[in-house]
Design brief:
The structure is a homodimer of 401-residue chains. Chain A is globular, with a radius of gyration of 21 Å. Chain A has helices spanning 5-9, 14-27, 46-53, 69-80, 96-108, 124-132, 152-158, 181-193, 252-264, 270-279, 284-307, 331-340, 376-396, and strands at residues 31-34, 91-95, 114-119, 135-140, 163-169, 197-201, 227-232, 244-249, 312-313, 321-325, 347-350, 352-353, 367-371. Chain A is α/β, with parallel strands linked by helices and 401 residues long. In chain A, the strands form three sheets. Chain A has a seven-stranded mixed β-sheet, with helices on both faces. A four-stranded antiparallel β-sheet of chain A has the order 9-10-13-12. Chains A and B meet through helix 1, helix 3, helix 5, helix 6 and helix 9 of A and helix 1, helix 3, helix 5, helix 6 and helix 9 of B.
Chain lengths: 401, 401
């Protein structure tokens, strides 16, 4: 029996290897604080739920492949808040940012083409690359530099005849780095010079901290023809499960091509689009509160981590993740220990080893990604577990005296 | 600028070429009866809409990649009605039958591998094949034979080292043929002999007429390891826009592989899954009524068509489409004429030229696919337009005296 190479290309990620241990711990009544996943506990805006309750069709019928027209017409108002000129015709509604990235890859790349990506990167991109049969080519960003954009020369060195695009995530998952206008401009000049594309995943756009303003790739209007912006309602309105996203692109040829992929799957699910449409009416105060909440959680996590001997981390400026270096030999071994062999007053922590967030083998072995999406009280408990767990691990596993 | 070969592989279908004409006609106030698309006017069961109105989460959160557990646990009860032993672990909830077919292709086939398919076939499969970069290899079924399964030798001749699977749709879109146990068994023996897979799209399972019983591919338990069944809630419960489907497979390796594709897109949309779960509680009387309604519509369409001089069609035994041969030189030219140059008392008809439903070029040029999903009154009007339109076309365009 033959399984496709796409499938054999999927690596079993540390998170998937760890999940059974988490389930066992939970089945034994241990409370596991999930710092490993970006599932916020923030409430979805009430008018989104109201719109679902008021869903008024008698037949749930096929909609347009491009997405609900009202939603495409409503989104430009939202982008205006960021000073961006987006038209309904520039927008394709997708099933999550996930589908938008897949559409971008499949539109721009043939099998075995390449996409350059700064690492560490959002690990699911490896799966999208497998599905499109695209090879990811990494450029390493470093913790000691605050995970800023590596030198543009490093990117240029990696461009070959097979390069279809560079993919960026800003604010970044997992590093929290918010790319500066200067960094973005450098990349835009590079992609223009080499006649390739820049795909920017901006799903964490709202979550920039310390008063830092966000610069969207769509604001560089001179380069609009070679930019694809990936967007999503998931994080912005805490409605990850609705899987509403968008692909935004001012290049009509690219959008028409992506539309062919969209037409194949007929249309995005209807009810969730009504929910997303209602989300557009969300008051700015909701976003402001959520941003303040995340900033507070970030502060708790960063200051807590810095108090733990041997732990290093930057203070992220955006999104709701950070990469921390732990005083351990192997982050996956430590993560397994925390789930399988450790608990403190019936509690423990699940962390995401960073190995998966790098294309390059052997980097980031001591690093973990931590999401600060759980409430402050839970975060403090998680930090307490982490500190005690690290001490226990170093003593029991690393055999320190 | 480079667009991928996937995209250039998409052909502009007659339906897409015709749609602008339909929009123009509609904008001029002409009522267009859409026999070209399988969008039923049947109401979704009320408890589905009730479940949406009662959606009770405060945060629309990520769910399991496999799909909502209750839904996977509820579906086996439904399959039991068909005498099928399906377990929750055999099921992956997908975004439409569309995603299930894509998962099947991507799991079983590498780029440039082949899938054998009887033609005429559901035209969107060509798009799924493009996305997976799989080549469709046709075996032609014929109207004069009632579109039954072509000789198994014809299939065997097409099997090469690159063949990953045979894809069947039963009851068939567009022909309405319901494959017999004997036909299915022949195919199963063939795929077993060649160590390939049989994928069967059974989304029209409920719609078999004249008391004909349906045989699911899942009932052949001896061959379960090489079968993928594609299912959907769309047609069964008239909820196409919810895009809920399923991939059912008893081969754990295949299911684990498809799950990797599912994990990439995180989870199916949540609210629509709750809707699907409620759909499982649909009383059999709903399905019986809908089936009777479609059978009545079929009878109206078939007897109406047979009264039109020169029109040929079979009486389909299942699904809600039929393929008709029209007394015209070119079905697409005729379809365009109907939308652009014809109306009868302010009404006209949109039909789907069959060219798209064949891989082989030049077959089916006089054929159209007609969906009988609109109500009897509308169907009768559509038939009236079709008869008058055919006469006008033959006179004005084909220059008959």
């Amino acid at each position: 029996m033959h399984m496709s190479h796409r499938i054999s290309g999927f690596q079993c990620s540390p998170i998937r290897r760890l999940s059974p241990f988490a389930r066992v711990a939970e089945s034994k009544g241990i409370r596991v604080y999930h710092l490993n996943i970006g599932q916020p506990d923030i409430k979805t805006p009430p008018q989104v739920l109201d719109a679902i309750h008021a869903y008024n069709e008698q037949t749930i019928a096929y909609g347009a492949s491009e997405g609900l027209q009202e939603l495409r017409e409503g989104l430009p108002e939202y982008y205006k808040k960021y000073g961006l000129d987006v038209q309904p015709d520039d927008i394709l509604i997708t099933t999550g940012g996930s589908e938008a990235i897949q559409f971008a890859f499949m539109t721009l790349c043939d099998p075995y083409d390449e996409v350059i990506i700064p690492e560490p990167y959002y690990t699911n991109v490896a799966s999208f690359a497998n599905i499109a049969m695209v090879n990811l080519v990494p450029v390493t960003s470093k913790m000691e530099d605050g995970f800023v954009l590596p030198s543009i020369d490093e990117f240029e060195k990696k461009i070959t005849r097979k390069t279809g695009a560079i993919l960026l995530c800003s604010p970044n998952n997992p590093t929290g780095h918010v790319y500066t206008p200067r960094e973005l401009k450098q990349l835009l000049e590079l992609v223009k010079r080499h006649d390739i594309f820049l795909i920017v995943d901006e799903v964490y756009r709202e979550f920039c901290y310390d008063g830092k303003t966000f610069t969207s790739i769509l604001s560089f209007t001179d380069y609009a023809d070679r930019v694809i912006c990936v967007d999503s309602f998931s994080k912005r309105y805490s409605m990850c499960g609705s899987r509403r996203g968008a692909l935004v692109c001012k290049n009509p040829e690219v959008l028409a091509s992506a539309l062919k992929l969209a037409q194949a799957r007929l249309c995005p699910p209807d009810i969730e689009q009504e929910a997303a449409f209602a989300a557009l009416r969300t008051d700015d105060s909701y976003i402001d509160q959520v941003r303040a909440e995340y900033q507070n959680r970030r502060d708790i996590l960063v200051s807590g981590l810095r108090k733990i001997p041997g732990v290093k981390c930057n203070c992220p400026k955006g999104a709701f993740y950070l990469v921390a270096e732990l005083p351990v030999d192997d982050a996956e071994k430590f993560a397994t220990f925390m789930l399988r062999d450790f608990s403190l007053d019936g509690e423990t922590v699940m962390v995401a080893p960073c190995e998966d967030f790098y294309v390059t083998k052997g980097i980031g072995r001591k690093q973990v990604r931590l999401a600060y999406v759980i409430n402050p009280e839970a975060l403090r408990h998680a930090l307490r577990c982490l500190e005690a767990g690290l001490a226990a691990y170093r003593k029991q596993v690393m055999m320190e005296c």
